[in-house]
Amino acid sequence: MIASTRTNALHNGEHSAGDAQRRASDVESDLMRAWALRTSIPAQSNAIVTSIENECANDPRVLAKAMLVRAAVEALFFREESATQLLARIGDSLTDAEPVWIARRQSLEARAARQRRDYDVATTMAQAVLALARAIDDSELIAGSIVQIVLNSIALGDHSAVPAFIEEARVAAARSGYTNLVSSIFLTEAAHHRALRDWQAAIACDLNAVEYCESVGDTLALGRALNNAATDYAHSGDLARAIDYGDRARVAFEASGDTVILVMQLNNLGSLCLQVGDYKTALDYILKCQEISERIGEVKSLASCASSLGTIWTRLREYVAASKHHEESLRLFESIGDRAGIASEYLRLGEVKETCGDYRGSLAMLANAQKIFEELSDDHGLATTLLCRAYALDSLGRYDEALATLVEPAAIYERHGEPHGIASAKRALGTVLVDAGQVDNGIVQIEQAREIAHAHGFTSLLILIEVELARAYECAGRFEEALNTLRSHYALKETTTSEQARRQFDLRETELARKDAEMERLKHVELAEALRQIEQAHRELKDAQTQLVHSEKMASLGQLTAGIAHEINNPVNFIRNSTSPLRRDLDEVRSIVSRAIEDEPEEFRERVTKRMAELDLDVVRAEIDALLRGIEDGASRTAEIVQGLRTFSRLDEDDMKPTDLIEGIESTLRLLGSRLGERITIVRAFDPIPLVDCRPGQINQVVMNLLSNAIDAIELDGEIRISTTCVNGEVSVVIADNGRGINPEHRDRLFEPFFTTKPAGKGTGLGLSISHSIVEAHRGRLDVESSPGAGSAFALVIPVGAL
Questions:
Q1: Same domain as 676, residue 564
Q2: Angle at CA 427, nearest 5°, toward 423 and 431?
Q3: Nearest to residue 470, comparing CAs of 454, 453, 446, 448?
Q4: Residue 754, by phi and psi: left (phi above 0), alpha (psi -120 to 50) or beta?
Q5: Domain endpoint, select from 304, 337, 370
Q6: Domain of 235?
Q7: Tens digit of pLDDT for each residue in 674-717?
Q8: Does this model's pTM top 0.70?
Q9: Concatenated DSSP letters for 638-670?
Q10: What is the gyration radius of the CA atoms in the chain, in angstroms?
Q11: What is the CATH number of the domain that holds 766?
């Protein structure tokens, strides 16, 4: 507020239109800088936007551009609902803005359409942005719109034009100078190869992005590139490298200082560790993610953490605990309207119920999940849901329905080239075929599932597959193969179980340590809160005592000044009322004398004229006139002082009343006239302001304190600028001087009682403290902006209707 009010003071008719144009240019430059930083340092981008919003609160077009930058940052972190709301708030404010801002808005709207999986609409919008970007030759927009077109084409299964588009985007990104765009091109190319199930080519593109980001030192973009590499390694079945690259991404995100994207990565790492059965490491990542998410209020991450905890307990066969965590996750996802998250938790609860033998309850949950996944066109979620549904139907003896259900997930996993999914689908198909009496066909499917799981190191899945395969061999009468398969199963399970037992023990220890730490933390928090309350009460008592003494002093001073004003006013009025009649009487005497002389003989008139010349009567007359004017001026000046005393004598008034603050400022200036002298110039920059509901005497005291401090701060000649503005129902009075300024180490203590930087005997240290209390009592604030050698500006801000 202080920056904006000071700017208003400087621009109230004191500077030319050119200054306003230069300021507008500065704002546009700040907006462009915020836009440039949105992907590399989003926190700094938001800080710049906040400053612009505060300074330009009444400029709809500037605010619209600021909201657009915020929407871009929100989209960066996949907070789609927030980004969409910001775009909606912009409305038509950018209709006649510069083409580059119009294109940026259209680009964000195209991205939102892609996130909704409305790929045809998203492509049309991105193509319009590309055409506009080419017309204005904006390399960043050219590259960004091409990336969107390519991603939409990949989603629609059209890869024909992708290579040519990527080359054009690569050239535009290099021209733009945005490092994150160059890395985005590599990652977009990786997405192209990923869709074609060419994992090695995708990983090569990811590693190119990693190398580039390391060379330019862009930690945030590096984290994204490493995370992409982790994802592609996981798809390829190399979970060890996936975890390694995922952890490197975590380190990069921590270095960038961006907590929002860090919690997303911690959750991803927890999921990867779950896939390899490393529950302790998974729990460490998830608990850290949960801690940060609670601190920053990231509900979606908290929901994901609860889901991951449920998965851990499911793997450890603690189904009650698992259900509890998944129900909590479902509640959190529902609170933010995250449909994908809601569907996932219905799926997890369906899996838990199916494992516990509640097949009908499982089918009910899975039906909810299937409906949402179909509406979202989420192939992976749908495939997993249908697999679980097939097992529930199989357990109920509904084999034909189970076999029909398995057709779609098998096709989805084949289409996406996911080995874990393919193995899971074949295992499920084999199990149902065996139960349905088609044992030989079932064995073929389960053996294929075992080969895939063994080749990719899917240990947990392999244990389940070998149980099913041994049972199938037994049903087929192949007892020796069944026995060998069971031996292999138990050997693998024994190794895994001992490791699992160790992990479960570690898990219990970790949770116990976390609970102990939480109890200790809460104990310290309670003690700290009690101490804080005691200190607060002490401060309030001390402030109340200071304020009481001050109030009594001000009440006495108010009565005294009112009495003095009354006593002085009577003789002053007598003097003022007497000067005019005296002037008339003197003029009349002169007129009578002149007429009398004219009636006398000429000889007499000549003697009188000669005598008057000898006595310098004309000079005497001039002196009398000057003396009368002096008496009139003195009486007027005394009357002004009396009026100032009367205004100031309202210090003892307790009632709120509509008050003219500018009148109070003028009366205070009159009282300080002798201290101002000729060495200090007062510059008034008063915007019209409404009457303010306040205690006028108290506000006058605040103005007196601020002006007195400004006078003391100016050692030689100087200037005090006083400005008034009214914005959004708040009146602001800014008193700025060009004195010595305030040292940074003193800034935080300015409003402490008895703190002063003035020499001994020149200040009590109560002026600003009392002023601060008065302003707070009016539900206002007292802001300060100062630097050594550059002067200080204090802003008194109170609402028009204070209470």
A1: no
A2: 170
A3: 446
A4: left
A5: 337
A6: 180-256
A7: 788 788 899 999 999 999 988 887 888 889 889 988 988 888 88
A8: no
A9: HHHHHHHHHHHGGGG--S-EEE-HHHHHHHHHH
A10: 41
A11: 3.30.565.10
